Amino acid sequence: MHEVLEQLGKIGIVPVVVLEDAKDALPLAKALCDGGLPCAEITFRTGAAEESIRLLSREYPQMLVGAGTVLTTEQAERATAAGAKFLVSPGTNPQVVKYCVENHLLITPGCANPSDIEQALENGLDVVKFFPAELAGGLAMIQALAAPYVNVKFMPTGGIHPGNAGEYLKYERVLACGGSWMVKGDLIREGAFDKIRQLCREAVQIVKESRG
Ligand code: 3PG
Prior knowledge:
By secondary structure, the protein is an alpha/beta fold. It has a single domain (3-207), classed as Aldolase class I (TIM Barrel, Alpha-Beta Barrel). Helices cover 46% and strands 16% of the residues. The strands form two sheets. The chain has a six-stranded parallel sheet, with helices on both faces. Strands 6-7-8 form a three-stranded parallel sheet. Helix 2 runs parallel beside helix 10 (193-211) and helix 3 packs parallel to helix 4. It is globular and about 45 Å long. 44% of the residues are buried. The model has no long low-confidence stretch (mean pLDDT 97). Bound molecules: 3-phosphoglyceric acid (3PG).
């Protein structure tokens, strides 16, 4: 498995962030690192994403900073140029996946059914995002999908929260969970970085308790 994915697996929870303003990127990174989650999926849903990834990659080289909501090859290229170490997409876009694989960019495409997973396998990928996790069938669906695809690992995202993250993490075929609960937009807007650090610490505790 790719080293970055192994490291994400060890951390266990990947904060999914929507940054409206790149000025929040560095204080957010400090809160994440101090809170024990030195990683982030910065979603390409705002104009601030690219600059935020650039800042974080420069100032926090030890952090695993990736780009989320990567919908086009152009975004994949821009995110990588800004320093993203991994790319995440909500669905499986064959063009984006092919572009990433051909250019040796690490991508975890969103998969919600067997056909999506077979596309990932066809491209040599065996770690996929499972999205939207809770609505697409939750842990039971992951277990059903894991049965035929014996080498695939999942990163469930969408609807994960402190109350259900542990159950996902206990399952050995879940590499890590993605979630936004510790980095909600209002917390970032209010500059509540102490609260974010605290929520990260609690998330780390969930990883420890569920994986022993
Ligand atoms: C997303 O892409 O927005 C993620 O799935 C986050 O989902 P969540 O807000 O339910 O954690």
